[in-house]
């Protein structure tokens, strides 16, 4: 496979494993979240943002980019406090607010409180980024417990319903909801059955909700990552899959979180005023059919 940029880490990745949900510090190579590369230009000045899964991976890259574009953020995460503090550090270095909000988004009451906290502490909510996700790998359907299936759905798609429903009560015309789906929405990995099923649901939820709220001037879109180097990978995939992760793309490597952030910035900005119900694939060249 050809490589698009030899300065980016290339597979095979070093052998490594973590316990879910994973942490950034032990990863080798370290993910690039745009800490040194992302340059803002005021595209999100005045935006008030709630982002889930903002502690690491794609969420951290989006938080850094949004802050450098002028947005203030509430950063929701489960319990990865060290990672969340690191994300907050970069947001504050950009001169923006970073409010950390640990908790369980599978709980509808917590989701409602999270939106209310955003409104209270930032003075409103103009962008909701539904990014948090749970996945585990299983070789057989018999290995997926009822509890695991339920947890995956509650984390990945129920939370998006809870948060979107609560946020829409406070959103004005020009606001934006951005959901993270996946290439698994149309090309499901068999060993990620529960996760892939939720990602298909997210793509459908995005398109349907976009139609429901279009008359209010609120836009709903989603981003579909391909293989991206985040803590989810060494903590939820077998060792051999981690080593070869990203090889199956035309670009021949895994993407870095920083390479996702510009898509989210576009969808959060007024530049995407005629985009709603859209899915933006960032997949290293793998088609979404």
TrEMBL record:
Presence of keyword Zinc: no
Transmembrane segments: none
Annotated stretches, region: Disordered: 1-43
Keyword tags: Oxidoreductase
Keyword Oxidoreductase recorded: yes
Pfam families reported in the protein's UniProt record: adh_short_C2
MF-aspect GO terms: oxidoreductase activity, acting on CH-OH group of donors
Family: Belongs to the short-chain dehydrogenases/reductases (SDR) family.
InterPro entries with a match to the protein in the record: NAD(P)-bd_dom_sf, Sc_DH/Rdtase_CS, SDR_fam
Protein name: SDR family oxidoreductase
Database matches in PROSITE patterns: ADH_SHORT
Gene3D superfamilies in alphabetical order: NAD(P)-binding Rossmann-like Domain (3.40.50.720)
